[in-house]
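Thread: quick sanity check before group meeting

JM: Hey all, I'm pulling together slides for Thursday and realized we never actually wrote out the predicted structure for the chain we discussed last week. Dropping the sequence here so it's in one place. If anyone has concerns about the input, flag it before I start.
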Amino acid sequence: MTSRDWLTKVPAITAVFWVIKVLSTTIGETFADYLAVNVGLGPAVTDVIMLALLVGALVVQFRTRQYTPWIYWLCVVLVSIVGTQLTDFFTDTLGVSLYVSTAVFTVVLAVVFIVWYRQERTLAITSIDTLAARRSTGARS
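JM (edit): ok, ran it. Output follows.
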């Protein structure tokens, strides 16, 4: 195993990865709905709580130096929850069509991919070469 392998902060993308992704997303979204409806927090409070949890989880994820399953999957679940909550807010509260929100999110995602590709010259999640990664492996910029 190379020093670069130790810097990877994502799991191998396999069939098991996709099964866990689907299950964790479903459970996460169900939990958010439970908080909003059954616990009675409502969509606004649930959105704020989930967004705060996502920000906290991302801070922890960005500070870790290697793949830590519970941190990674917590971020995956929270991203899907917050994304769903935002879509519900736009659709149910603001009356934005799903076609419009889908188009907007598609453009935002395309911009993210363009910026990522221009920075890294690849979209491979296993070869992200940030300044911090170069410093820890001793590679030059």
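AS: nice. Residues 69-93 form the longest helix (25 residues). The two ends are 23 Å apart (CA to CA).
JM: adding both to the slides.
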